[in-house]
Write a structure and sequence with these properties.
By secondary structure, the protein is mainly α. The chain folds into four domains: 1-190, no CATH class; 264-408, Alpha Horseshoe (Serine Threonine Protein Phosphatase 5, Tetratricopeptide repeat); 431-659, Tetratricopeptide repeat domain (Serine Threonine Protein Phosphatase 5, Tetratricopeptide repeat), CATH 1.25.40; 663-722, Winged helix-like DNA-binding domain superfamily/Winged helix DNA-binding domain (Arc Repressor Mutant, subunit A, Orthogonal Bundle). Helices cover 72% and strands 1% of the residues. A two-stranded antiparallel sheet has the order 1-2.
């Protein structure tokens, strides 16, 4: 039996030779497909240039999974490299085979022991060094690039491969090496073997428990290849698919899942990249069918995520009923959300508080993310950041890059509320790239919505609208109420800061029509302070008072200083004339005990406007200067422009921004674009890196030139070179 050649882990010790053909060939693909293409071929442009024209229409649009086996990815490249390997002496090729078998798809670090035990002469490696194929070092053999290593393995005969694996397996005798020894024993097998399949299954379970899903996937997949029992083979394939997903191999996971009928596995894949409503149904069905309560609890937790994504309250209640019927503890996030929807705010607070408190070091990433979501709903942004950071660190420690990106989805809310827009935007951009690379298109949609909100805060209207439109399209097709609602809120906030109050009020009213792919009850609730502001400006105080009453009920129940501050601000906006002043003072006192610094600055801006109208000019001026400084530090130019307009109305010129310092004058997005342009990147290259259109990049650069008072890229290079 020919041993399947699986892609090895990315080897950064010697980068592949580059050409310019690959990235250009991939540039026309959707961002998610492009990221996965680069990942599956180890970012080698030669392989990209060969693979992209061979993709089917369904693969190129992300409907079907990409190929995963090297022979399918870049056959011409492999053929050329194999010719190069075959030109080497026989002894050299056998040494290269032994080194390649030792390095992928499972790294075992046994080459040096193997050549010593077998008394193999390593001098023939000099021919490989002369040919530039590989070189010997203190740690073993280092190949020129990953594809050369794959070719060195694939060039050998099946018998030679088996012999190499047998030798490597014999020298791996340590107690900590049993997992890798099992791999080589399985790789050397001639055909199906129930005994070897069981040994590999045990090794996969051990690797999974140790937080090495990539190793577990290789072992479980090989166990399935050797298993003579069809039912057990299907179970092993399902485990291998789950491991592939956790280790960031979405296309392999989808291909393995297609060979099983696991509703749990299909539910997980649908949750991350398919229809969230279908994901909920599959996960709930699987939870009810499971015999082990631990498995049922995990599946119900995933069903909770699907319910939260959809915003469908009926599904929230379904999951609650299922948990009660199975005698399982209910998810604090799900139960808290359902209680809040029913108006049982005190019950919701207790349920969420219990979940938010479960964020300690060393925890599993999933519960830590739930802890962060619960803290977010309670207005505890410090704990949200702590829990999500710990979740991301835990995910990376467990070899689970997909979950690290998921944690950032919910941390983003806390970041833009607390005014960390510039750093947060860069972190979300990185999480977006990771989400695309690991096949999490639903998570990418949520992160795009967060970027739309950042763009609204920083006054980047074109980017906000472009991202919101992309979110809307994906959300409608996949039943995602949460990102759809967040994108709608971003557009409403953009209207609000531009003085388009009727449009802002209409958008925020539309959030009430929540449902799969349209809106979300939690987002509608969180946006209430902005809705009250827009409604008051349009004279629709009756509905605004009703919305505020419900928001105040929640703020009182959860006892969040920030929520109480925003409730006091709403009361001030609804109060006539001088009656608003004490409510604004109460709001600012409460903001001082909270963390939502951006909203504190907006409260100061609104308070200053009320003071100006009451002719309390001195305090109004002080409040406006404070708000202006905050908005400039947050990179929120449109809010800063509102503060300057109020200062001009007082007859007081505002303090100018910090001269020609780009970091002080430009928004976070403009600064990023400016630096890339100064480094010589074209508009198309910048657009590809930031997941935006070239037209948007051109708009950004015009804004950069205008704000910095320059006319050319040469001046931009000079200015950025002089700035710190």
């Amino acid at each position: 039996m020919v041993i399947p050649v699986n892609p090895p882990p990315l080897d950064r010790s010697s980068p592949p030779q580059r050409t310019d053909a690959g990235p250009c060939a991939a540039s026309a693909l959707p961002e998610g497909v492009r990221a996965r293409v680069l990942r599956v071929v180890y970012e080698d442009p030669r392989a990209v240039a060969e693979l992209v024209p061979r993709l089917t229409e369904r693969q190129a649009t992300g409907v079907d999974p990409l190929p995963v086996e090297p022979a399918e990815l870049a056959p011409r490249l492999l053929q050329a490299l194999r010719r190069e390997i075959r030109a080497l002496p026989d002894d050299t090729r056998l040494l290269l085979l032994l080194a390649a078998a030792d390095q992928y798809p499972v790294a075992t670090h046994a080459f040096l022991r193997a050549v010593t035990a077998a008394r193999i002469d390593t001098r023939p490696l000099e021919a490989a060094e002369t040919a530039g194929v590989a070189h010997a070092g203190a740690g073993g053999v280092f190949f020129r690039d990953i594809w050369t290593r794959i070719a060195a393995y694939g060039t050998a005969s099946p018998a030679d491969r088996r012999a190499a694996h047998q030798l490597l397996g014999r020298v791996l005798g340590g107690k900590a090496e049993t997992t890798r020894r099992s791999w080589h024993r399985g790789a050397a097998a001639l055909g199906p073997s129930a005994r070897l399949a069981a040994e590999l299954r045990t090794a996969a379970d051990r690797a999974r428990a140790e937080g090495r899903p990539a190793l577990a996937r290789a072992l479980a997949e090989r166990a399935a290849d050797l298993c003579p029992d069809p039912a057990e083979e299907a179970r092993l394939l399902a485990r291998a698919a789950a491991d592939a997903w956790r280790s960031g191999e979405p296309d392999r996971a989808r291909r393995l899942a297609a060979r099983t009928d696991s509703s749990a596995l299909n539910g997980v894949l649908a949750l991350r990249a398919g229809d969230a409503s279908e994901a909920f149904d599959a996960l709930l069905t699987a939870a009810v069918r499971q015999e082990r309560s631990a498995d049922s609890a995990e599946l119900l937790a995933l069903a909770t995520e699907a319910a939260v994504y959809t915003g469908d309250l009926r599904r929230c209640r379904e999951a609650q009923v299922a948990a009660q019927r199975l005698g399982l503890p209910q998810s604090g996030v799900l139960a808290g959300l359902a209680a809040a929807v029913d108006g049982r705010y005190e019950d919701a607070r207790l349920l969420l508080k219990g979940t938010a408190g479960r964020c300690g070091p060393g925890g599993e990433p999933g519960p830590l993310i739930h802890s962060g979501i619960a803290a977010l709903m309670l207005g505890d942004h410090t704990r949200t950041v702590t829990a999500t950071l710990q979740a991301a660190a835990s995910a990376r420690a467990h070899g689970n890059p997909a979950t690290a990106a998921q944690a950032m989805e919910f941390r983003a809310y806390a970041d833009f509320w607390t005014g960390r827009t510039r750093a947060a935007e860069a972190a979300v951009q990185e999480a977006l790239r990771q989400a695309h690379a690991t096949g999490q298109e639903n998570g990418a949609c949520h992160l795009q919505a967060a970027l739309a909100m950042f763009a609204a805060v920083t006054g980047d209207e074109e980017a906000c609208r472009e991202r919101a439109a992309a979110v809307r399209s994906h959300a409608l097709a996949h039943g995602l109420g949460l990102p759809a609602a967040l994108a709608q809120w971003a557009l409403a906030f953009l209207d609000l800061t531009h003085g388009r109050f009727p449009a802002a009020a209409a958008r925020l009213r539309a959030l009430a029509g929540f449902g799969p792919g349209h809106g979300h009850r939690a987002i509608r609730h969180l946006a209430t302070p902005h809705y009250v502001e827009a409604a008051v400006r349009t004279g629709d105080t009756r509905v605004a008072r009703a919305a505020h009453a419900d928001y105040h009920h929640w703020a009182t129940a959860v006892r969040s200083a920030d929520d109480l501050a925003l409730s006091a601000r709403c009361r001030a906006l609804l109060a006539p004339g001088a009656e608003a002043i004490p409510h604004y003072r109460t709001a600012l006192d409460l903001h001082a005990r909270g963390t939502r610094d951006f909203e504190r600055a907006r409260t100061e801006l609104l308070f200053a406007g009320a003071l100006r109208r009451l002719r309390q000019r001195t305090e109004a001026r002080d409040r406006l200067q404070s708000a202006l400084e905050a908005f400039e530090s947050f990179g929120a130019p449109h809010c800063a422009a509102q503060a300057r307009a109020e200062l001009r109305a007082l007859g007081t010129p505002s303090v100018p921004s910090s001269g020609a310092d780009p970091a002080a004058v430009l928004t976070a997005q403009q600064l990023m674009v400016a630096r890339m342009a100064a480094d010589g990147a074209t508009n198309r290259e910048i657009a590809d890196r930031l997941n935006l259109s070239p037209r948007t990049i051109d708009h950004h650069l015009r804004g950069v030139f205008s704000r910095l008072g320059i006319r050319s890229r040469i001046e931009l290079v000079r200015l950025l070179g002089e700035s710190p």
